[in-house]
Write a structure and sequence with these properties.
The protein is α+β, with helices and mostly antiparallel strands. 50% of the residues lie in helices and 20% in strands. The protein has 15 helices and 12 strands. The longest helix has 37 residues.
Amino acid sequence: MKKRLILIALSFFLISCANKSNLRYDTLSKSYKKNGFDGAIAKIEKEEPKLYGKNSSFLYHFDLGLLHHYKNNWKQSIQHFSQAEKIYEDLFTKSVTNEAAALLTNDNTKPYRARPFELLSLYQFQILNYLAMGDVDGALVEVRRAQISMQALYQKDQKKMNENALLHYLSALAYEIDGEHDDAALAYYHAARAFHENKTKIPSEVFEFISHSLKKSDRAELLHKLDYQALESTPKADHLEKTNTEIILITYLGHSPILGELYMSGTFVSGAGLNVNYKDPQTGKRASATFIAPVVAGAGGTSFHVGFSLPEKRMLPFQASKAIFTLDKKTEPIQSEVLMDFNHELTRNLADDRSSVITKTAARVVIRTIAAQKAKKAASTDNIWLNLLTSVGTDVLQSQIEQADLRMALFLPNTITLTRIPVEEGTHQLSVNILNNNNSVISSLQLNDIQIKKGQKAFFFVPVLR
């Protein structure tokens, strides 16, 4: 009787438990829209247990690291990203101890370990934090950590593309500033390779610096392996080599997608197959897919009808899509080029993980279904109404307990652009206009009296997440 009451109570308790990821986005988006980055920071710090909890500690520090970065609070950003990195490393080196609990509940009960693109972007922001502070040594430490992480991700799963072109490009920039031109050339090559493997076009400015560096180090033939031909003329890179003085403009445009839920249902046969039906979130049409099903102990060859939710990309409305700048009111307006597209990164990550997530989730649902049927049988009495209440409570528990893991960073931009502007020593002005897809200006920034010393690399950041 006691077990029966616990089961029923647990069932109705779970009904009231909303997915914390949805709560987190709804709460923080309101704070951000009302009070900007400061409002989001204050809300996160005030309501950490409610919005994140111990299983999402990585995201707590990652989100704060991002927000402080946008505010040019370099030291605070570094501290939070460093803490997020430590949490990731601790989880990466430990065995998975929460799998048993996850089999009975869902993946939200496990500590969040970060998606590969989140981890690698962490190093991007850390490198930029240190470079913005003029701390080249600190930036190079992050470069080395990033290289170790990329290698570890590759060893974990060689079939997935876990490199990051922008991260390699920033590494090359850090090496150049430190005078390590040989290391810079290799980092430039790895950036080209990452673009090639990711099947995305290399921005023209980026390719000019890649070509210049590889030609200067007698490594231009490396580009041939990637079916690229080094540029004959690299005027911007040549000019910068002489002056070694530049303004580096980074813009963060729009808001990256987050995660919503995709409901799938179908038939599961242990050790045979899993056929699911669902509504394709991209086309809106009904679709189906078949996967190899794992063997579930106790299931035999029995067929089970299963229904479960999976994470899917959820696009958010935003306006900022282009960045146009002019220098000293003399140059023609120049559009910054995209080096990082988080929409693409999330799409690829979900595609890479889709098959394994589906089969694991379906197996978990079947295990719980078998356990539930056994629990109903064990709790059966001569009282029809009590049996009905137990059965309903068990079924409610089953349906409520399976929640998709929708956790991910909430304040990534949709795209990152980076433009290098060679300048002479002296005073400069920089005008930046942010445009929407209709080429209408939605935000402007005027930087006057920029004092640039000879040999200086001056970093400026323009975050427009709306």
